[in-house]
Structure prediction request, 203 residues.
Amino acid sequence: MQLEQRHIDALGRAETLMFHSDFCPYLELKELLADGTPQARSQFRILFTSFYGLNAAGLTDNFRDRYFDILFGVSVEGDGEPNAAAIVERLYDIRNRQGQRTLQFSFVSKLVSIHREGRPIYDRHVLKFFHRRDPAERKKSDRISWYVGFLNDVAANYGAWAQDVRVIPIVDRLKARDERLAGCHVVRLMDFLVWKVGNRKLL
Prediction:
């Protein structure tokens, strides 16, 4: 996707509207996950649930228990990463409070991205920024394939945009807000900005 000037303007405005509460919980989550102690994992679960809204969408305690079992059980070595498609399938079998099976694309993207910063987050704000929509009318396997492909495209675009001379100053200003942001993957920084664009309806 080619960035138009209106996208650049929106990203720049998003950076000026960024609060520490928009990114500090994420930075704390990284530290807690690296800790690995039972106390840290308990704190991680509470903060992750609050920050990413895991109490929403009619999800059950059973779902959340399974979700965090998967998150804490992930073993990532070298260039590997959690298998998003497989996790979506595993969680699909757990019905929500309405008794329905759902494809939890957004929450799975957050699970993957907490382990691999180079993987983007999926939510309605990202879809709107890219002028895309979930092909809900397709069968499950096709929707999952679309989801994986879309996130690959998002990651590639974020990487390319970060090299755009119009975007570099915006990202640099964001990094200057907290020294820990300088150590974050550019995909995560773009995630913050695109989320803020959508959250504040800047496009």
About this structure: Residues 140-161 form the longest helix (22 residues).
